[in-house]
């Protein structure tokens, strides 16, 4: 398993945020963790990354504890919730992706031609035309900016992508483009994808498995199974209807 959690519980400032979470993510899977705001989804992602220590339970990332001496965090690309930045800051999409190479290059070292080529190839892989690669990040659309940040998460030895509310603030066309790119990365390169989102419609059409979370797991299965489950209504307070399952 790429990710394995057993009976994981987390408290923050004395409040139980996650309670008895069991989760497995197989290699090459596309798993969406859905739930309302405040359900503990971001905390779950941070637990997997080793950024939050659980009160109890076991967390394994590629078979190793995320903060252990032989951890595999270098195999993980993480896209946190949409970031604010100065649109006038003079960096290009290529520069943003190059930041993802720091783990390969090392601090205080200059990137090689191979590093620069890897960043360019990553941007092409996610659909950037050559005319956009050197364009200032502030001149790109919101969807293009988010794809550049996705490229930063990809541009090393990434085997697992963890995406935290990746389409917040994007219009419908940009959301669909983003998830189409992510789905292609899974299919064409065998990446494992874990998305956390409160927006069911964004992920229901592309996830292999969905997990509905609100402190604890309320439902899990295919998108169709979760959308029809009583646990979804419990988590959201009402049954969201009419959302497409993958393949519809």
Automatic annotation (TrEMBL):
ABC transporter domain residues are: 3-239
The UniProt keywords, alphabetically, are: ATP-binding, Nucleotide-binding, Transport
**MF annotations from Gene Ontology:** ATP binding; ATP hydrolysis activity
Listed CDD domains? ABC_Metallic_Cations (cd03235)
The source's domain of life comes to: Bacteria
PROSITE patterns, per database record:
ABC_TRANSPORTER_1, ABC_TRANSPORTER_2
Aminoacyl-tRNA synthetase as a keyword? Answer: no
The secretion signal range is: none
Task: Supply the name of the protein.
Answer: ABC transporter related
- Give the species this sequence originates from: Desulforudis audaxviator (strain MP104C)
What is the taxonomic lineage of the source species?
Bacteria, Bacillati, Bacillota, Clostridia, Thermoanaerobacterales
